[in-house]
Description:
Helices cover 72% and strands 0% of the residues. The chain has helices spanning 4-19, 27-41, 48-57, 64-80, 82-86, 88-105. Helix 1 packs antiparallel against helix 4 (64-80).
Amino acid sequence: MHVPEEIRAEAAALIDHHALGLWKPDDADRRAAVALFRFLETGQPLTGEQVRSVLAHAEPADGATERLLRLLRMTAALLDDAPAAESPVGRDAVDHVCLLLDALALSRPAEH
Length: 112
């Protein structure tokens, strides 16, 4: 089990890399983010089951995509542990993941 602080730090790092242009999400990244963003738009809390459902359809690729998929797997495990997910550090970690998903879902496709 990954601790919430690791999840938060990884999500923050990916947000920064995306904002600075060091990481250009590919189509698979955006599709996964959009699928999870749609769950978030319902106003209901994200669940581990929802994340795993999206991961089951995600396309493995190299570099950043694998890093994103690993983060989402860690987040699903955290969400499955209700006490950890509901703790202040757990909520902060999930909030950072949701911010990353928002940024990716709203990003423009990378130019080739």
